[in-house]
Each structure stands twice: as C-alpha cells, then as structure tokens.
From TrEMBL:
Membrane topology: Multi-pass membrane protein
Pfam family, one: FTSW_RODA_SPOVE
Protein name: Probable peptidoglycan glycosyltransferase FtsW
InterPro entries attached to this UniProt entry: Cell_cycle_FtsW-rel_CS, FtsW, FtsW/RodA
Organism: Kineosporia mesophila
EC number of the protein: 2.4.99.28
Cited NCBIfam families: ftsW
Annotated transmembrane regions: 31-51, 71-91, 103-123, 129-154, 166-183, 189-205, 212-231, 301-325, 337-361, 367-389
Alphabetic keyword roster: Cell cycle, Cell division, Cell membrane, Cell shape, Cell wall biogenesis/degradation, Glycosyltransferase, Membrane, Peptidoglycan synthesis, Transferase, Transmembrane, Transmembrane helix
Enzyme class, broadest EC rank: transferase
Biological role stated in the UniProt entry: Peptidoglycan polymerase that is essential for cell division.
Reactions catalysed according to its record: [GlcNAc-(1->4)-Mur2Ac(oyl-L-Ala-gamma-D-Glu-L-Lys-D-Ala-D-Ala)](n)-di-trans,octa-cis-undecaprenyl diphosphate + beta-D-GlcNAc-(1->4)-Mur2Ac(oyl-L-Ala-gamma-D-Glu-L-Lys-D-Ala-D-Ala)-di-trans,octa-cis-undecaprenyl diphosphate = [GlcNAc-(1->4)-Mur2Ac(oyl-L-Ala-gamma-D-Glu-L-Lys-D-Ala-D-Ala)](n+1)-di-trans,octa-cis-undecaprenyl diphosphate + di-trans,octa-cis-undecaprenyl diphosphate + H(+)
Length: 422
C-alpha cells in the first residue's frame, strides 16, 4: 500500500510550487498583515533611533551636554514603547471596548493639565505639553489613541442607527469636539487637523451618511482658515504660497527652515554624504532631530534613504489597510482605520512640509522623529492592531504550524554522541 504525504504548507505555499505560486501563497497567508505591520514598525523605530543620534549630537554638544543625550532619551522611550506594544498585542478586543471611555476621560484630564501653571509647558507659540517628574509629555498624542479606541467602541454600538444623522454624530462629534477645543486652546493647529481627520475617518468607515461630511467639511474649512490667521501661521502659509527658495525675500524669515531642509535633501544626491556627515545639522536646520529629520535622512543617506523610509511607511499602511479589508469585526475595522489615518496624515504632512509641497505645521514623522509621547502612543496603537492581525481567521493556526515546523526541524538535527571522533 502506497501512502502519499503532502508537503507541509508554509505561508500558504507548498514545497513543489513555483516562485510565483510561493509569492502568491505568502501574500494570501493570514499572517501577512501581521508581518507587514510588525516588520515595518521595528525597521522604522530602529532607523529613527539611528537618525535621532546622528541629527541631534551636534546641538547636544553645543548645549554642553553629551552627544548621546537625545539618543538615550529616545532609546528610553523606545524601551517603554516596545513592551507597551507587546502588552497591547495581547489585549482582547472586548477589553479595548471596555477601556474606551476611561482612555478618553484620561486624555481630557491630561490635556487640561497643559493649562495649569507650573505643569503646562509652551514652546514656539504652542502650549500643548506638560512637565512631570522632569519629563515633557504631549497629551494630544494620548488623545489621538483614546479617540480611536473610544470612537470605535461607540460607533459599533451605534451601527444600527448610523443612517440617522443625529445618532451618527452623537456622542462621537461632541466627544471629539471637547478634545479639539482643548488642543486648540494650546494653539496646536496641526494636531487639531489630525484629530479632525481621524474623527472623519472613523465616521466614514462606520457608515455615516455622506451628507454629514458635505456639511461638516465647509464648517471645518472655515474654522481652519480662521485659526490659520493666528500666530506666525499666516506668515508661513503666505511664504509657502509665494514659493520658498534661497532667492526669495523671506529666505531668512518664515522660509528659513524650509530652504535649509530642501538644501539638505539636494546635497544628499543619490547616496548621501554619509551617515553622521550632515552639514545642515550644525545649527543651520531648526528641529533637525524632530520635524525635519526626513531632511537629514535625505542628506546623509540620499535619495535611497528617503525612498527606504517612504517604502517602509507604505508597507506599514499596506499592512493596516489589509487588516481593515480582511476583518469582519466592525470594531477592528474602525479602530484599525483610525490608526491608518493617524499614520498617513502624520507622514503626508511631515514629508510634504519638508519637500515644500505643504506649509510647515510642526508634525513629527511616525516612529522616526524624536518625541517620547508620540513614539510610545504610536507603538501602543500598532500593538493593538498587531493583536487584531494575530486573531485574523487562520492566523493562530498558521503561527502554531510554524512553531511546530521549527520544533520538528530541531528534532531531526544530528546529535553528537559521546566518544565519537576520538
């Protein structure tokens, strides 16, 4: 009697399959979303640590501190954020729904602390930070995460009533409105725009009537235009509209940061001037380790380095979009869409500002720019999404199969016997 043994399935492909079949099988694997998100997250975090060290060392020395000051601070936040990501990965969906309201209320309290004298900290016209135990935290980053979890929780329960505009708007819009008012109280227009985008995205994925967006877009546009008149925003927008260049009349004013950022990208060429060899970071480019770290990547690593960062961000977004499209759980779909919008808006605003396609609003590059609160909350949010990916249909079985395959492979390795080769 002849027994036929099928080759083991690994990532959706069999041992005898062609290369194209193997690639298709791996792309169709239930673990593909997990590996895309996890791999891109780890790679961007590591690149961010290296570039924070390179871009901040000169300024740290000029301030009389160690060249590793910003790096160790960012590494410490990464050391907090990675375990937070691993913990969030193991939290069940039901628990996230329970945490929705407490997270939102916590974000309100933290944001209100920015107005408390002695705790709230301001910088460059914005007043959106708090100082606790010697560390500066940005509560708005917590607010974005809280809005996603809370909004998804509320909208899942509202799903049968989403065809009614009043039920679609309440309580999501009032809740997000409170957070917006607190953020705008600190004059942080960029973060407020991201919160608006997240709120709109949550409502859209939940199935809110399209006429709501038509009415709300006009109101929000007027609000953004009114807020743009405050502080130095009007000067920056005007300079951007007139075109920032080395020969522009405002090259030493509102265009200064934009011009030097574009010089950094231009001087990098194809392969860059070399890691650590940036010239713009020597006090010429403000916020080189934060809002304009992408310019330092372009200068030191060249076009290849910038395309690598953009490619990893696209990979991260692809993994998030894949989870949204493959899940049947409405909470998972809405929450993952919120995280996707969070990543996309930050990336587009940051890179667009650096290359001159958008006005500069002071937005960090996800997982790459220096910033402890932004890094920890983003890693926590991605950990939540990774947990969703691990619970995708067939993912648990695929993980168990891979562990079993490794154990079987180790079991057949030759064992050196005592006394052999004497």
């Amino acid at each position: 009697m002849t027994v036929t043994v099928e080759p083991p399935l690994v990532g959706g492909a069999r041992d005898g399959d062609s290369l194209s079949q193997r690639v298709a099988g791996r792309l169709n694997s239930p673990l593909t979303s997990y590996y895309l998100v996890f791999g891109a997250t780890v790679a961007l975090t590591c690149i961010g640590l290296v570039m924070v060290l390179s871009s901040s060392s000169v300024e740290s020395i000029a301030d009389g501190a160690s060249p590793f000051t910003e790096f160790w601070r960012q590494a410490m936040f990464a050391a907090i954020g990675v375990p937070a990501m691993l913990v969030a990965m193991r939290i069940p969906v039901r628990t996230w729904q329970v945490l929705g309201w407490p997270l939102l209320l916590l974000s309100f309290v933290l944001q209100m602390l920015t107005f408390v004298p002695g705790i709230g900290v301001g910088a460059k016209g914005n007043h959106g930070w708090i100082l606790i135990a010697g560390f500066t935290l940005q509560p708005a980053e917590v607010g974005k995460f809280a809005l996603i979890v809370w909004g998804a929780t509320v909208l899942v329960r509202k799903r049968p009533l989403m065809d009614q505009p009043l039920h679609a708007l309440i309580p999501v819009v009032p809740g997000a409105g409170v957070l917006l008012l607190l953020i705008l109280g600190g004059k942080d227009l960029g973060t407020a725009m991201v919160v608006m985008a997240i709120m709109a995205g949550l409502l859209f994925v939940a199935g809110a009537p399209l006429r709501i967006f038509a009415a709300a877009s006009g109101v929000l546009l007027l609000a953004v235009l009114a807020l743009a008149q405050t502080g130095n925003r009007l000067d920056r927008i005007g300079s951007w509209l007139n075109g920032c260049s080395a020969t522009s009349a405002d090259a030493m004013g509102a265009c200064f940061q934009s011009v030097h950022g574009q010089w950094a990208l231009a001087s990098g060429g194809w392969w860059g001037v070399g890691l650590g060899a940036s010239r713009e970071k020597w006090g010429l480019l403000p916020e080189a380790h934060n809002d304009f770290i992408f310019a330092i990547v372009g200068e030191e690593l060249g076009l290849v380095g910038t395309l690598l960062v953009i490619g990893l961000l696209l990979t991260l977004c692809l993994g998030l979009a894949r989870i949204v499209l493959r899940t049947d759980d409405l909470f998972v779909k809405i929450a993952t869409s919120g995280v996707l919008i969070w990543v996309v808006t930050h990336s587009v605003i940051n890179i667009g500002g650096v290359i001159g396609l958008l006005p500069i609003v002071g937005m960090p590059l996800p997982l790459v720019s220096s910033g402890g609160t932004a890094l920890i909350t983003m890693l926590g949010a991605l950990g939540m999404v990774l947990g969703f990916a691990r619970r995708e249909t067939g993912a648990a079985q695929a993980l168990a199969a891979r562990v079993g395959l490794v154990q079987r492979s180790l079991a057949v390795l030759p064992v050196r016997r005592e006394g052999r080769n004497r």
